[in-house]
What we know:
The chain is of the alpha+beta class. Helix 5 runs parallel beside helix 6 (about 380-385) and helix 15 runs parallel beside helix 16. The chain contains 17 helices and 50 strands.
Amino acid sequence: MKVTTPLTRGWTMSLNTTRHLPAQAPQALLHGGVPATVPGCVHTDLLTAGLIPDPFIDRNEVEVAWVGRADWTYRTVLPPVGDHERTDLVFDGLDTVADVRLGSVSLGRTRNMHRSYRFDVTEALADGAEPALDVEFTSAYEEAEAVRAELGPRPNAYPEPFNYVRKMASSFGWDWGPTLVTAGIWRQARLESWSTARIAEVRPEVTVDAEGTGRVLVRAEVERTATGAARALRVAVEVAGVLAHADLPEGATTADVEVVVADAELWWPRGYGEQSLYACTVTLTDTTGAEPAAPLDTWERRVGFRTVELNTAPDAAGSGYTLVINGEHLFVRGVNWIPDDTLVTRVDGPRYRRRLEQATAAGVDLVRVWGGGIYENEEFYDACDELGLLVWQDFLFACAAYPEEEPLRSEVESEARENVVRLMPHPSLVLWNGNNENLWGFRDWDWEPELDGKSWGEGYYLDLLPRVVAHTDPTRPYWAGSPWSGSRALHPNDPDHGTSHSWEVWNRIDYSAYLDDVPRFVAEFGWQAPPAYATVRRSVTDEPLTADSPGMLHHQKAEDGNGKLDRGLLNHFDAPRDFDTWHYLTQVNQARAIATGVEHWRSHWPVCAGTILWQLNDCWPVTSWAAIDGDEREKPLYHELKRLYADRLLTLQRRDGRLVLAAVNQSGTAWTCRPTVRRMDADGAVRAEHHESVTLGPRAVALIPLPDDITEMVDSSREFIVADADQLRALHFATPDRLFAYPAAKVTTQVATAANLTRVTVTAHTLVRDLLLQADRLSPDAHADRGLMTLLPGESVEVTVHGWSGGTAEDLSAVLRCVNASDGLGSSGDAPG
Length: 833
C-alpha cells in the first residue's frame, strides 16, 4: 500500500544572497535562517519571526516590498522511508520559480504556482539516507522580467509584469489589493512511497439521464515501477454500493470503468433541492497472484449527479446566457470571489467555510472564482458542494495580454489540464471560463496598436482551453471569457449577448444608469465603500483620521477611488462634514447602488438571467467593492444582499414611463400576496393607498400597474411611495436625498442583554431612512444581524447584537445613524416630547 509522509516539520527559511542582497533586508537574515512553516510563504515566516512589520497596517506594504525582490531558500532533511520500490517527492504547490535540490543535485526547476510537481528520489533515500532538501526560490519579478525581455512587451491594466509568469496575478497588486509578491512552499509537501503501481490520475465523468439513472465513467491512469510493468492489475470503482472494475494486462496504464446507479438522488443548487453527494472510491490492486492482494493505492472523492447546460440560444432580445441545472432555468444570484487573504496560505478550511456560509446566508447561489487569483484549495469546493453553491471557475488570466509562446504556452496547457482533472469531481463546479476581461481589453483598451501583431492570449481562450475542457471534462460547458458575447463578430461586452461587465456606471455615471439597459447576464458590477469602522481603526492609525489621510489613501487602491466615491455621494447627499458621516453615507450609497441594479435586473427575468456582484470578499483591509471586509466584518451591503437575493422580492420599477410594482418569485412554489401601496408625505401622512391581490407561479415575475393617485406626486420633495407585502418592503423616492424634506429623526430604544447577545429595539417616531446600528463601534468584536432599515412613524425593529456585553440606550447614541440624522441620533433612550 502506498505510504505518505507529510513534510511539515524541520524547515528553515533563509535569504539567498548569491544573486543580490536587498538593502532593506534585516541583519538577522544575513546570519542564518528562521523557522519556516510548510505550507506557508516567506512573508508569513518573516512575520512570525518578527522581522517585518504587518504589511496590512498603515503603509507597511511599502516597507516590505523588498521581500518580493529577494531570493529565498527553504531547507529540511528528508526522513528515512520504508522498504518500497519507489519514493517520490511531491509538492502540491511551489510559489513560483524554484530549483529543487537534494544536496548538490538538482531534481528540477519549476516556474508555475498553479501546478504540482513530482520527483523520483528513490536512489537518494536508499540505505536509510537522510539527505538535505533545498528549495531555492528566485524572485518572481526576475522570472517575469526575463520572459518579458525575451518575448517583448504586452499591454497590461496594471504596471507589474504578472502576465509573464504563472503566479497569482493579484499578488502583484490590484485596484483592491496590496503588492505582496510571495514565495514559498504554499501547498502540501510530502514523500510518497509505493511498490508495483500507483493511481496517477482519476477523471470521473458524472452524468444522469432523463430517467434518473446516474453514471460515473472513471477514466483512470496508473504508473508502474519497473517490476510492476509485468504485473496484472485491477481498477475497481464503487459508488452508492455499486461496484465495477476493469483489468489491466501487463504493461497497460489506462482503464475506463463505468458505474451505473439506478434512481440516483440529484445534487441541486441551494434553494432548488437537496445536495446529495456520493462517495466515489477507486481502488488499485495487483491480481497476478492466486490470493487477493492488499490494495496498492486508493483514491476517494465525493461526486454528485446533476446535469448542466448553458442556454445561449438567440431570441428577440439578442442571445441569452442562462444556466440550466437538472432542467431548471436559473436566475443566478452570484458573487465574485477573490483570494480571501493576499497571503493565501493563511486561508484554511474553517475560514473558507465561514465566508461561504456568509454567502449562503445572504441568498447567494453562485460563486465566481475570479481569474486573477488561484484555483482554490479542496476545502473551498467541498464547502460549495455541501452548501449548494454553484461554482463558476475562471482559468487564471486577467486584465492583460498574455504571450502564447514558450516558456508560457506549455505551462498554461499543463496547468489547465491538471486543474480541470483536480476539480472535476465537484458537482458544484458548473462552468469553466477562459479569462477575465482580456477579450474586452483587446477590443476597447487600445491593445491592438501596441501589440502590433504579437500574440495576446486569444489562442488560449478560443482554442487551447476549450480543447482541454472538451477532452478532459466533457460534462461541463466552457465560455471563452467574461465579458464575452459568444462571437468574434459581436462586441465582447455587448449587453444583448452573453455575459457583460457594467463598470462605466461606477467609473463615470451615477448608479441610476443601471436602469438604462437590460443585460442578458451581468457578470461584474459594483460600487465602493470603506470597510467597517473597527477594521479601519485596526489598519489605519492616522490622527486625525479623514477620508484622504495618508493611511486611508494607501488603503484605497482604485484609480481616483475617493474621487468616484465623492462624486457618487454628491449626486444624492450634501458633502459630509466629517469622517464618520462620510463613512456612513458611502456605505449607504454602496447598498443603494447595488439595490438599484439588482432590483431592476431581477424584475426583467428571464431576459436577464443573473447578476454576479463584484465582490463578496476582500484580501486585506481596504476601501473596495466588497460586501465583507478584509477583517471578515459584514458591511451594510452584505445585509442588503439578504433582501436583494431573497427568493421573493418587491420592487418599484418603471415600465413605459410609468411606475409599476414588480413582484419577483424565485422560489419553487406559487406566491399569492396582497401588497399595500401607499403614497406618503415626509411627516408620515398617507396621501393615497392601493391594495391589489396577485398570484404568480414559481420562478416568475409579475408587474402590477399602479393607479395615478399613487404614482402622481404633488410635491416630490416631500412625498414617497412604499409597498408592503409578507414582510417585504419596496420604497421609491423621486428626488435625491439632499433635496428631500426629511423630518428631524426621532427614535426611542430599549436594550435587553442575555448571555453573549443583546437585543436592541428601536421605535421610530418620524420617518427614519436607512437606520444603521454600527455594532463594531460598541466593541470591535460586536456585530449586528441587521443592516440598513427604513422605518415609518410608529414602527419598531429589533436588532440582535452579538459580542457586546450590553449597556444602556445612551451607549447607542454614537452608533445609531440614519440619512435624516447622518451625524448621529444623539441620546435616544427617552421618548420624544
